[in-house]
Amino acid sequence: MSEDGGKATGAAVGGTAVAKTAGGGATATATSGATPTMAQAQKQTRQRTYADAALAASIASAEELPSSLRRKRRRRNEAIAPERRSVLRKLMSRELGSDSALGTRKADACVRFANIGLQATFDTHDPDALASKMAWLQRRSKIIEIVSARDLIFSLTHTGVCAAFSRDLGRRVCFLNVKRDEVIRSLFLNKTNDALITVSVFKADDFSSLHCRSTPLAHIRKGYLDSGVAIFESESLRWPGFVEFDDVNGRVLTFSAEDKTYKVWDLKTYRYLYTIRDERIAEIKISPGIMLLIFARQESYVPL
Length: 304
Fold this sequence. Notes:
The protein has 304 residues and is of the alpha+beta class. It has helices spanning 38-45, 50-55, 82-85, 87-96, 102-112, 217-222; strands at 8-13, 16-21, 27-31, 143-149, 152-157, 162-166, 171-175, 182-190, 195-202, 211-216, 229-231, 242-246, 251-256, 261-266, 272-277, 281-287, 290-295. Among the domains are: 82-112, no CATH class; 124-231, Thrombin, subunit H (Beta Barrel), CATH 2.40.10.480; 237-304, Beta Barrel (Thrombin, subunit H). It has a 4-stranded antiparallel beta sheet with strand order 4-5-6-7. Strands 8-9-10-11 form a 4-stranded antiparallel beta sheet. Residues 1-34, 57-62 and 73-79 have low confidence and may be disordered.
């Protein structure tokens, strides 16, 4: 309220009026004597519930409602693009490797591996079967290499024991360590002639030379390990000699440290093809259809 003579100012809040005069500095407070209604009394004494909010939703603003009852409005910029909702677009993005199909790839991975379960358990360590081998081979050790060839599974341990297991029979077929002092270092599945190549070292020469043997998979299934054929016997594969198998080009590369010669062999028939002899060769790289010779570095360039 306002008066010209006293220059009083006032404000009314709810049922209470507050007045203050500028000249005398007196303050007056007046309280309305109106009795609150039953609905107001219940509103003050009783705590508000979700049912009350639902009944008052037509007159109450969105800010007064609980967050669970507020109407969720989707902004236009947050709407999902129609092309992402399309199944055809998702399949195309998944095949093309788009980042937008990350969710689809995750779901596809779950479906892909949903039916994978344990079928069989094999143990490479068998003290009774390895009793005739060296004490070194009788120890239990970690698996360092696994090769699968249709119904056969080959496992190689860190100590050099290689075992063959049959998926169809659900048991071990044989050990590929033919001799007592044989330590197998690596395996290679030769798909060109359906055979397994083992690279081994023996105690007889103080484990210093590599020896390769090729055994057909059909004979391994029957346990006929004596039918394996020794290959590259003419080469002295002492350290730092090596043998590399290239299944893409169907070739085998051997290096003899004694005469420093590289020889190339046919992977299917193990037939000798040609020799590369040059003391300047530092490394050889093999790619599909190409053999790259890297010579020792000279003053300002590397000859290739």
